[in-house]
Amino acid sequence: MPASCPLCRAENETVLWQNSRLRVIAVNDTPAAPAFCRVIWREHVAEMTDLPAAARQEMMAAVWHTEAAMRRVLRPVKINLASFGNQVPHLHWHVIARFENDAFFPDSIWAAPRREAVPELPEGWQRQVAELLAAEA
Amino acid sequence: MPASCPLCRAENETVLWQNSRLRVIAVNDTPAAPAFCRVIWREHVAEMTDLPAAARQEMMAAVWHTEAAMRRVLRPVKINLASFGNQVPHLHWHVIARFENDAFFPDSIWAAPRREAVPELPEGWQRQVAELLAAEA
Fold first, then answer.
1. What is the architecture, at CATH level 2, of domain A6-136?
2. Motif range for Histidine triad motif (chains A, B) (predicted)?
């Protein structure tokens, strides 16, 4: 657990679901992409192919549960999934619900924004996603 | 199979591996990100959670094989994985080998480039990846 890794520390997070191996959080620091969750493997591992097959499968099951819950609650036009880790090489998946009127659509949220519009999301969507994740577990 | 979907058509592709359900291609139209493969599900499906569990697992197995082969041949500093489909809602995974001196590092390849440098890649890396994928299949 490198002392410098922000994903090892897990401070100030909105945790939607967790077990001893991974956690699902709501990402609240990206106002232009407000419908954003992250699945974080607890152990400090860099790549999916560094994980044993069973762990890889557990990680992806959490990603699919998160995608399914976000689709059900948010009714997005598309889900975007990404595992980069260039800045923080600690395994984590971005799960992002996309809308035609969001700041970046149809580009990725890592492109330059096309507009200022921020989609209106259902009230309490993070709690609803957390409830669906708890029901799946 | 919508007539307008470019991923249904499969024209002018460098196929590295394929079976009846998916194909792995080398992406040659993004000069700033030259170490780039794509895993494409043949059926016109939009989201991973639209696939039955077994198909989802087969798709991801192809992604892990591609990641493992690219790591072995290219020795990148990081692998980036992404499934967006905002422009083409036909399931496909980007598998991108990243280098500290590539045009975007440590940002995603969808951000604005930071430099012009293009990493030197091993000669014939696509053929080597194809051979490893064939050996895994």
1. 2-Layer Sandwich (3.30)
2. 90-94
Name A6's Cβ contacts closer than 8 Å, sequence gap at least 6.
Answer: A88
How far is residue A81's CA from residue A106's CA, in Å, rounded to a whole number? 14
To which H or E segment does residue B65 belong? helix B53-74
Q: How large a percentage of chain A has pLDDT more than 70?
A: 99
The predicted-structure confidence for A26-62, as pLDDT tens digits, reads as follows 999 999 999 999 999 999 999 999 999 999 999 999 9
* Interface residue ranges in chain A relative to chain B, Cβ cutoff 8 Å: 46-49, 56-57, 60, 63-64, 67-68, 71, 77-87, 89, 98, 105-108, 110-112
Can you tell me the ipTM of this complex? 0.96
| Residue partners of A130: CB distance under 8 A and separation at least 6 | A16, A17
Chain A CB contacts of B67 under 8 Å are: 47-49
